[in-house]
Design goal:
Helix content: 25-40%
Structural class: alpha/beta
GO molecular function: 1,5-anhydro-D-fructose reductase (1,5-anhydro-D-mannitol-forming) activity; nucleotide binding
Number of helices: 12
Order of helices and strands: EHEHHEHEHEHEHHHEEEEEEEHHHE
CATH superfamily of the largest domain: Dihydrodipicolinate Reductase, domain 2
EC number: 1.1.1.292
Domain GFO/IDH/MocA-like oxidoreductase: 142-272
Strand order of the largest sheet: 13-12-11-10-6-9-8-7-14
CATH architecture of the largest domain: 2-Layer Sandwich
CATH class of the largest domain: Alpha Beta
Domain Gfo/Idh/MocA-like oxidoreductase N-terminal: 4-134
Bound molecules: 1,4-dihydronicotinamide adenine dinucleotide
Enzyme class: oxidoreductase
Radius of gyration: 20 Å
Shape: globular
Length: 377
């Protein structure tokens, strides 16, 4: 089978998310890294591209050059990943979609709801893929939970409790460190700090597992380190279209919590629990019964969980392979082999609406607000 050509913007040397994309895209042999504008510093980006085996004429100084360079090539990239800081996602994603490229955009997809709606429209008009990297949804055991809910194994979902709370910005003495400070600066991060950074992963996960969307929410935001303009801790209560009650806590000052992403789903006949730090296990408790630990790779799991599991039972599979699962389904969709099961622009838009509405709610002392983007009301 011919490999697909893949390019990345951002994700340069030393970046946080770049390695997961490079490993994920290439893990299954579907994509070859053919082009990139990897760094805000052109020379550093080119030098890094060289170490990755990208040909020098496809190691671009910036995304605009990459767009022009790739546009006319016969072997143009089949997929472009946008792994730059948040404020650049909109213009890069829009430009590549309009030029007829498939795009995988990092979260948050845009900075505003209007931009999010624009991306949904542009993606639809282009007929191209616009995926958004809510990669936690591609862990095999998360797919198992979604399957269990969809097949009625825990009954109607009553309540979801989701957390994405870590303690890595909990040191007030380090708050001025430039790598930390920008995340709480509205000029750089937008209207929300921690909720837009981590909370939206948890909110997306709740919708993904429940097979339902968030309709209303009420938020309490706090800047527990007083020099911060944006929130470093948030509690968001929500209600889903089908009536499910949601509780979401996200924090960056929860000292002692490391990655801190976990979710519990409570249905009428059973409960489920999953944590990103032990992603190979789901805890399942049937009503009136004992808690069982379900392991990735064991017999009896859904086809979907088996499909996305690569190594034998008890061998850890981690974050890069969850990202790889997104790329597997992108490759299948690009090749026309399958419809592709990955988060799309509409999911990115829903997150942006939730972020902006949570900010409005927090400013109004937690008033309940419509969480949906105007386009979907
Ligand atoms: P980072 O600051 O560690 O790295 C950003 C990279 O982009 C650097 O290599 C920088 O030189 C490059 N860059 C900046 N502006 C650029 C431009 N205009 N053109 C080309 N390259 C440019 O940032 P990090 O943490 O890797 O985050 C990048 C994006 O990924 C963010 O939107 C973030 O929210 C998202 N992210 C998503 C995660 C997930 O779980 N899906 C996890 C971590 C980050």
């Amino acid at each position: 089978m011919t490999k697909l050509n893949w390019g990345m913007i951002g994700g340069g040397k030393g970046s946080q998310i770049g390695p997961a994309h490079r490993m994920g895209a290439q893990a299954d042999g579907n994509f070859v890294m053919a082009a990139g504008a990897l760094d805000v510093d052109a020379e550093r980006g080119r030098a890094f591209a060289d170490t990755l085996g990208i040909a020098s004429d496809r190691a671009y100084a910036n995304w605009q050059d990459m767009l022009e360079g790739e546009r006319t090539r016969e072997d143009r990239v089949d997929l472009v990943t946008v792994a730059t800081p948040n404020a650049t996602h909109f213009e890069i994603t829009k430009a590549f979609l309009e030029a007829g490229f498939n795009v995988l955009c990092e979260k948050p997809m845009t900075m505003t709801v209007e931009e999010g709606e624009e991306i949904v429209r542009v993606a639809e008009a282009s007929g191209k893929i616009c995926a958004v990297n809510y990669c936690y949804s591609a862990y095999p055991m998360v797919r198992e939970m979604r399957h269990m809910v969809a097949t009625g194994q825990i009954g109607k979902v009553r309540t979801i409790v989701a957390n994405f709370s870590h303690g890595h910005h909990g040191d007030a003495g380090d708050a001025d460190n430039p790598r930390v400070r920008w995340r709480y600066d509205p000029a750089m991060a937008g209207v929300s700090g921690q909720f837009a950074d981590c909370g939206i992963h948890a909110l997306h996960m709740a919708s993904f597992i429940a097979g339902d969307e968030v309709r209303t929410l009420s938020a309490d935001f706090a800047s527990t380190i007083s020099s911060r303009e944006l929130e470093d801790d948030a509690m968001v209560n929500f209600r889903m279209e089908g009536g499910t009650v949601g509780r979401l806590w996200t924090s960056s000052v929860a000292i002692g919590r490391q990655h801190g992403f976990d979710i519990q789903v409570f249905g009428e006949t059973g409960g489920l629990r999953w944590a990103s730090e032990q992603p190979n296990q789901v805890f399942y408790t049937p009503v009136g019964g004992r808690t069982q630990i379900m392991e990735k790779g064991e017999g009896g799991l859904s086809d979907e969980a088996q499909r996305l599991s690569r190594v034998a039972i008890a061998h850890p599979e981690g974050f890069p392979l969850a990202v790889a699962n997104i790329y597997v389904d992108l490759a299948a969709k690009i090749r026309g082999e399958a419809h592709g099961d990955f988060p799309v622009a509409a999911d990115g838009l829903r997150s942006m609406a939730a972020v902006h509405q949570a900010v409005a709610s927090a400013k109004a002392d937690g008033a309940w607000v419509d969480a949906r983007p105007p386009m979907f009301r």
